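Both lines are given unchanged directly below:

***
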Amino acid sequence: MTSTSHPIGPGGPAPGPASFLGRGIPRPIGEFRWVYLWGLPLRAMHWIAAISVLVLVVTGLYIGNPYFVGGIEPGLIMTKFRFAHYLAAVCLATTALVRVYWLFAGNRFERLKALFPVRVRDIKNLFRMVKFYLMMEKDKAPHYLGHNPLQQLNYTLVFVVAALEVLTGFIMFGLAWPTGWIFKATSWLVPWFGGIQNVRIIHHSITWFFLIFIPAHIYLSFRADVIEGGGTVSSIVTGGRFFEADEVYEDEDA
């Protein structure tokens, strides 16, 4: 293939600043290919989950410590916040169920082997990625079309933490309505956590985990887009992104 001096994109040079935080950005040149990564169900669940988590954080912090009441009856506004919180929790739990199904029904970049570092190759590359980010690895980091092993481990942690957040939330929901089926399904778990107070502490602490994770996730995604110019952010909208045509990727056969 013949190289071109234009950055990726069918229309020639990509728009945007040529610097990032005062430093020059080497614009990508050469031949590129567009790879379809994320199916519509996964992309839809991603955005529904993102909105749900945002609503859960805002309403959860208010439920834990009401930060305004205005001229409205405090009990009424608390009821509205609780309803929004419970509705967002159901939406988040639903996206989790769809994501679990998509671990088996999705394309090769969305299935279980491509999301969790379970293969020997990915486990080895996980340590290479860690060494690379710690500047202990002289060679280039392994290239992946989908998530690299370090990203896989990171998102696995997020899924586990989110599941624990939903579980503790439904435990507290059940205690508020002790005659309902949710109470019967979750009340036996309270002793496992050492009491309801521990359930509350865990639930509240995870909220702060997401308050740290969300801006970090957004920043790193945009940073990768600005520096690499490959369409990391747009891929969760369009489903695909650009990759260097002559590069070898570890998950070509995922």
Summary: The longest strand covers residues 32-36. The helical segments are 40-64, 74-105, 112-115, 120-133, 149-176, 181-186, 196-228, 232-238.
